[in-house]
Amino acid sequence: MAANALFKPYSQGNLSLTNRIVMAPMTRQFSPNGIPTADVAAYYKRRAQGGTGLIITEGTTVNDKVATMDKNIPQFHGEEALTGWKHVVDEVHSAGGKIMPQLWHVGMARVAEKAPYPELPSAGPSGLFKPGKQGAEPMTVEHIESVIAAFAQAASDAKAIGMDGIEIHGAHGYLVDQFFWEGTNQRTDSWGGSMENRGRFAVEIIKAIRSATSPDFPIVLRYSQWKQQDYTARLAQSPQELEKFLTPLSEAGVDIFHCSQRRYWENEFEGSELNLAGWTKKLTGKPTITVGSVGLNEDFFGAFKGQGSDTRSVDDLLERLNAEEFDLVAVGRALLQDPNWANKIKENRTEALETYSGQSLATLS
Asked: Of 44, 174, 223, 356, which residue is the catalytic one?
């Protein structure tokens, strides 16, 4: 099938892209002491040169001492780190691309003894890594409010150095998602209990970011049903529950929802062929990004074990995109393996697509 749908320009609010291809955020841990280097800038520039319309960076941590799990994960605070990110922005823009940082707090996924400030406990709404596994005391309200402020400051800094928007990492069982998920949020105050209360942390982050930036600064929210702690976990069991979850987030100011699935071709609810991004667009009216094993036939969990994956046709993806089920397509490991993935698809050079190798995680190729 012709890949024309992937290469139509996209414009929404203050965001204009040359095509519909997004580089998905992928943690790399090549930023010593949290500072992105010239190698990091070159890594992202190669993807822009290779035809990727929008780059969403690896997770970058906000200014909270327990936000990160490793000293080599980049941070998005402090003069030295922001100077490094300004260089990344300039390199990507020089290649004709657009770029946003993914703002991240790992929450209870942090292993204290392996992270900076090992003397400090990790942070979560109820101190639970997963249901029944207690790792710390619940976050205080003061700590919750300080993390909200840290997200807002990071977004303000992103705008100041020329980023084209920001993404909030609200997926995969990290801090924001730990508030969403009833399994890890057992609070009895206004930050827990009902779905509305469990979503309040994200809503307040979105509002604070909007206030700290501008009405037209793009805000993307990445969310998932599944968690790293439980692949079968679900925030919403039905379209009605999903609408109840999404509506406050949409009203708070999310411009685009980034809907994470392990495999984009899987239907979200019985009786409908729509995937998670399709349902999200239908329920909110907001643009969506689909993601999950694009271009590959194995989901990404094997990648953590160094496993590879064969290439997979994107014809069904293009059919969904042509039908406007979603608006943008995030590509992860296929772009990690091959910076020129987008151009190869555009030029119909599918025979030149590279098979994903888990060894690509070892370098910033």
From this structure: 174
